[in-house]
């Protein structure tokens, strides 16, 4: 799909650094849009001295998502926009975050005016209309980007001693986003279950969350066949489950990589060594 990029505005820095703007909605761009709807933030700040800031960024867990930021987000920005994105590690106690960010009037006005992503809060966000009206490949890549950043993959015990039962989950404050994701997943012949507006607390504040669950083996097999994961946070869980038939809960990516290499006995997470 061709994009009308005539509304994009460039700063002098954008021009100096030879910023590129995509003129076509490609699967790679759709994937990045999914990442942004999941973990992205952007806004425009205007100061009294005339300085305008155009920050756009992505945050994740320092350990579990470091590789994703370095090997996925950074190259995508370079490929789509010819922009080197900055990466900062926040190792302060109780933080442990990784931040990928840049400042660009061109990229923000592209996402806002061309793609249709709002500035600021994403509380009531939609899937952009150009994604919803596109072909299945574009929709699939959007879901993959959203899945890599905002979905979770867990394995539950249910009626056994070990965590064997797969659940792919997505939670959002936006009922719009919940409904539109369900629509795409249903179109792809998944069987999503959902819960709407259940109350929870975060940082002492009550929130109402809308959740989607893809439960069981059939949904997981379909996901891996039709969508898949680029995130090693998710892939290491899947690989352990595929190899052993279960995956311990509350492990980080470094522990899971050691399990896959045979450097940690998987049974040690259950208080026993085989």
Strand content: 15-25%
Instruction: Identify the CATH homologous superfamily of the largest domain.
Output: Homing endonucleases
Order of helices and strands: HHEEEEHEEHHHEEHEEHHH
> What summary fits the major beta sheet?
4 strands, antiparallel
CATH architectural label of the largest domain: Roll
Give the low-pLDDT segments. Answer: none
Structural notes for this entry:
The mean pLDDT is 93. By secondary structure, this protein is of the alpha+beta class. Helix 2 runs parallel beside helix 6 (136-150) and helix 9 (232-244) packs parallel to helix 10 (253-261). The protein folds into 2 domains: 7-122, Roll (Endonuclease I-creI), CATH 3.10.28.10; 124-274, Homing endonucleases (Endonuclease I-creI, Roll), CATH 3.10.28. Helices cover 40% and strands 22% of the residues. The strands form 3 sheets. A 4-stranded antiparallel β-sheet has the order 1-4-6-5. The protein has a 4-stranded antiparallel β-sheet with strand order 7-8-10-9. It contains 10 helices and 10 strands. Strand 5 (86-90) and strand 6 (97-103) form a beta hairpin.
């Amino acid at each position: 799909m061709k994009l009308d990029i005539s509304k994009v505005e460039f700063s002098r820095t954008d021009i100096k650094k030879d910023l590129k703007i995509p003129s076509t909605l490609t699967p790679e761009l759709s994937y990045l849009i999914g990442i942004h709807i999941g973990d992205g933030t952007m806004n425009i700040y205007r100061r009294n001295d005339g300085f305008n800031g155009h920050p756009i960024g992505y945050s994740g867990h320092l350990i579990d998502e470091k590789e994703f930021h370095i090997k996925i987000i950074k190259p995508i920005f370079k490929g789509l926009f010819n922009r080197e994105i900055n990466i900062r590690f926040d190792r302060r106690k109780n933080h442990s975050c990784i931040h990928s960010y840049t400042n660009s009037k061109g990229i923000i006005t592209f996402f806002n005016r061309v793609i249709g992503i709002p500035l600021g809060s994403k509380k009531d966000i939609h899937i952009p209309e150009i994604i919803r009206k596109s072909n299945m490949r574009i929709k699939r890549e959007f879901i993959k980007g959203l899945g890599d950043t905002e979905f979770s993959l867990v394995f539950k015990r249910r009626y056994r001693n070990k965590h064997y039962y797969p659940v792919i989950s997505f939670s959002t404050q936006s009922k719009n986003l919940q409904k539109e994701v369900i629509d795409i997943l249903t179109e792809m012949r998944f069987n999503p279950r959902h819960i709407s507006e259940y109350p929870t607390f975060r940082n002492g504040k009550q929130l109402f969350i809308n959740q989607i669950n893809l439960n069981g083996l059939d949904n997981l097999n379909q996901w891996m066949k039709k969508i898949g994961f680029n995130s090693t946070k998710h892939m290491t869980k899947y690989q352990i489950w595929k190899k052993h038939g279960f995956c311990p809960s509350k492990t980080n990516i470094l522990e899971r990589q050691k399990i896959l290499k045979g450097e940690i006995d998987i049974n040690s997470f259950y208080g026993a060594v085989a």
